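On to our target:
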Amino acid sequence: MAENPVIRRFASNVATPSALDLQKQYDQPAYTGPRPSPRYMTLDDVVQRTGAMLLVILASGAVSWVLTSESLSAAMPLFMVGLMGGLALGLYMAFTGKANAATCLLYSAFEGVLLGAISKLFELRYPGIVVQAVTGTVMVAVGMLFVYRIGAIRVTPRFTRIVVGATIGAFGLMLVNLIAYLFVDGGLGLRTGGPLAIGFSLLCIGLAAMNLVIDFDVVERGIRMGADQKFAWYASFGITVTLVWLYIEILRLIGYARD
């Protein structure tokens, strides 16, 4: 039977695959159907995860509150566990970006232990101060969300650099003040309750409020740019860290005023 000239011409134009090409084709995984599309982050994801972290803080804080006695020495173990555990885990997530359900909720548990012990000691000295501090924290957070939504504060790269730089400077002063406590009574005077301490707490509250605005902008940008759903845990972690700092500073400021 004569070979079809059309088939012969087509075969001559097709290159013969090499052994390497055949091996690559053999190694490719079998087609199992269309791959699932990625799940993008939504505002509900951030709200739900932030709510979960705050609930864990409240739960562990309530346990720490009950276990904290009236003396500072008895509350010190809970204080140190919450401080060191929260600081170590918080720094790990901040520098690696590996924030997930396990690390974020564990961080919340440590922070709850810390805040429960601190709040109980403040409440014993200034009855009713915890409710005032929680109310103040909620009011500041809602207020900053409102001014951000109406565009009263625009988060520009320059604004972010200034706030982040000032925040690092404030924490650096806290560290220097803590070291100064070892050599001078009262340290630098940033936490003694005097005019300087009141001014420093007001500065920290202002910085925490500005950091909240940056946190809100991070969430909005992530949603707009189609960030992966996993990023919602990192965004919720940032908001929670800022809220914890804001609460502690408001608690201190009210304590100074009550004195």
